[in-house]
Amino acid sequence: MIQEYLDQEFWNNSLQAYLQSLGFILLGFLIIKAFKKTLFKKIKQLTEKTDNSFDDYLFEIIEKFILPTIYISIFFWGIQILTLNGQLDEAISVSHKVVLTYFFVRVIASFIIMLLRSYVRRQENGEEKVKQIGGIIIIINFLIWSIGILFLFDNLGYNVTAIITGLGIGGIAVALAAQNILGDLFNYFVIFFDRPIEIGDFVVVDDKNGIVEKIGIKTTRIKTLSGEELVVANSDLTGSRIHNFKKMQRRRILFSVGVTYETPLEKLKKIPDLLQEIVKNQSPVTFDRAHFKSFGDSSLDFEIVYFIEDAAYNTYMDIQQQINFEIFEKFTAMGVSIAFPTRTLYVRNENDQKFNIEAFGQLVKASES
Question: Furthest-apart CA pair in the chain: how many Å?
Fold first, then answer.
């Protein structure tokens, strides 16, 4: 009686076939569910206690992509127990291949990007450098998805060779039409691997300066000191002379001060030692030298050189300001005047000169007579 009921057919399949299909799907889901709650969960807890992040990423990939693929495959295999018409069976088969290709591409892309990020993080200032790999991630995804789609077309019975040939011819045409874009893309890789600049660096490019905010595939964006965003093509950036002040460990300072020509010699000889004392009183500063350098147009010039053991510009300005205050104070106490541009003008009276020449000529004639 029960067998007769199970042998009843609905849409070309018996009730027994439907139950077998459903039972296969439910049993597969239950096995995967039990695996996740027992063995998989315990292994994941063990990996979270390790210092290595590689296994954490690996289990994340398995949980996000591999397990959903297994669920979908179990459902597909369960459906295959049934007898379906040709079009429906073909549609389900194609859908299964598309889904498998999608998750396969996601697994490969995620794994490669995970390895790339792990490699970058191990370098100096790794977390900052990770922010710069957005363009490379886009390119990696594009290449992997392109290969995955070609692989899918091949499995669906399309002539992949003809597709690749067509893409090759089209690629040449696109490359010729987009030489500037490809040049910027190539220079993006130059910036990434050679690392002349990084996000957060304070740079001076030609007559522009600012902080690097983003390094893109085609352009680099710099926040200038005046507030606006400067967008520079990567080709222009790598072709320019870049001053990267973030790489500076210490700052060399050279400045001059001039005193008047009326300054006595004994006071001039004291000035280098006085300047040395003023500079050494600052911190963090390493004094280099102070010399009477030259006779200027309107001043006696002294040149001072010192190093600030800090690259911050505000620190430099604070120290230089204090040095200037003390120079003014000490020079005033010594009675030494700081020079400013002056010019002495000598005026000649042409009438007096003519009179003197005429008088001199009359004296000469008188003496001859």
Answer: 171
* Short-list 323, 343, 169, 338, CA closest to 258: 338
The overall average pLDDT reported for the chain is 79
The percentage of residues in the chain with a pLDDT greater than 90, rounded to a whole number, is: 21
- Domains of the chain are 2-177 (no CATH), 195-247 (2.30.30.60), 248-369 (3.30.70.100)
53-83 per-position pLDDT tens digit: 666 677 777 777 888 888 888 888 887 777 6
Q: Cis link prior to 284 (omega < 30° from 0)?
A: yes
SS3 311: coil
Residue 359 in this model has a pLDDT that exceeds 60: no
The DSSP string of 74-91 is: HHHHHHTTS---HHHHHH
Amino acid at 146: S
Beta bridge mates, 222: 212, 230
Q: Report CA Rg, the chain.
A: 41
Angstrom distance (rounded) from CA 202 to CA 210: 6
Alpha-carbon distances, residue 210 vs 134, 224, 251, 308, 345 (angstroms): 21, 4, 18, 22, 47
Element (H, E) at 210: strand 208-215
In this structure, which amino acid lies at residue 316?
Y
DSSP line for 243-265? EEGGG-SSEEEEEEEEE-TTS-H
Name the strands in the sheet holding 285-295, side by side, starting at the edge strand that comes first in the sequence: 251-259, 300-308, 285-295
| Rounded distance between C-alpha atoms, residue 61 and residue 79, angstroms | 27
Distance (Å, whole) CA 94 – CA 81: 17
Q: Which helix (H) or strand (E) holds 306?
A: strand 300-308
| pLDDT band with cut points at 50, 70 and 90 for residue 13 | low
Query: Distances in Å between the alpha carbon of 333 and those of 271, 272, 281, 330, 337?
Result: 12, 16, 18, 5, 10
